[in-house]
Predict the 3D structure of the following.
Amino acid sequence: GDSVTQMEGPVTLSEEAFLTINCTYTATGYPSLFWYVQYPGEGLQLLLKATKADDKGSNKGFEATYRKETTSFHLEKGSVQVSDSAVYFCALTRGYGGSQGNLIFGKGTKLSVKP
Amino acid sequence: DSGVTQTPKHLITATGQRVTLRCSPRSGDLSVYWYQQSLDQGLQFLIQYYNGEERAKGNILERFSAQQFPDLHSELNLSSLELGDSALYFCASSVGVRGETQYFGPGTRLLVL
């Protein structure tokens, strides 16, 4: 079945460091891909998304490119801040070609940014 | 603020009991999804309703049920509760039936003692 695999955490970085969180997926059809972020004690917030191959999603300095040839959607940020400390989830939906609309999530990657 | 509301925020109950979690979707959204987040299982899809009708089922136990009312709010009923049902339960909503962005509520934290 469809699935999402993301790098295990936790990831600890110093402020202004470069961030990459790897995400790969397995899916039939044409999934849409998402990154959600969960700050401590809060719900999930959409960070960015991409709905077709080669699309780049971006928001708040974060970017991810939908790579169909490598089935990947890696999250990157050039310079992280302490306020970026959170858990990041990669997810997919089966898109308009699928029969169900639910999100399938990776296990999450906890990011801690030190001053 | 996503526009999705959930009540209650916290719930503490005993094994064997029944609870009801409530969700109000964003204005204009017709789909409501329920997810369970636990340390061992991660984020798991439970069930989806679209415009009052059940649309899809995930890993939902038989002890759990849900419905979506004419005003589009949804309730998740959990019965014969077990210790392992302790988790964070999220509701999300979207405009259509599949593929669109889902917006999440703040969650209900359930603790079964």
Q: What stands out?
A: The two ends of chain B are 31 Å apart (CA to CA). The mean pLDDT of chain B is 94.
